[in-house]
Design a protein that fits this description.
Strand content: 5-15%
Strand order of the largest sheet: 1-2
Helix content: 40-55%
Number of helices: 3
Largest sheet: 2 strands, antiparallel
Number of strands: 2
Distance between the termini: 28 Å
Order of helices and strands: HHEEH
Length: about 100
C-alpha cells in the first residue's frame, strides 16, 4: 500500500542508525513488524496459567490457541539491487510522462 506520511527527521535518522537500515521504507516496515510482534507477545503472556502440561510434554490450551511464530509476510522481501532497479525504472517512467 502506497502511503505518504510525515515523520520526524531526527526519529527516522535514529531508527535507521539503530537498525542499520539503508532505506526509510525498511525502517518503517520493521517498526510495524515490531509493533505486531509486541501485540502477539502480550496475547501470549495473557494466556499465562491457561496451558495444561502433561507428563509426556504434550500440551493443550484451556481457553484458546496462541502461536509464538510470526506469520510470513504475503509480500516477498526485495533485495537492494532489485529495489534500486525498480526505483530507477519507475523514475524514468515518471520523467517520460512529464515530458509529454
Amino acid at each position: 500500500m502506497r502511503t505518504n506520511i510525515v515523520i520526524d527527521d531526527d526519529l527516522m535518522s535514529a531508527a535507521m542508525q539503530a537498525g542499520e537500515f539503508k532505506t526509510k521504507k525498511d525502517a518503517v516496515e520493521e517498526g510495524l513488524r515490531l509493533l505486531a510482534r509486541r501485540k502477539a507477545y502480550q496475547d501470549i503472556r495473557a494466556a499465562r496459567g491457561t496451558l495444561q502440561w502433561s507428563v509426556d510434554g504434550d500440551w493443550t490450551v484451556a481457553a484458546s490457541a496462541y502461536s509464538v511464530q510470526e506469520s510470513r509476510s504475503p509480500f516477498p522481501a526485495v533485495s537492494g539491487a532489485t529495489a534500486a532497479k525498480s526505483a530507477t525504472k519507475s523514475s524514468a517512467t515518471r520523467k517520460g510522462r512529464s515530458a509529454r
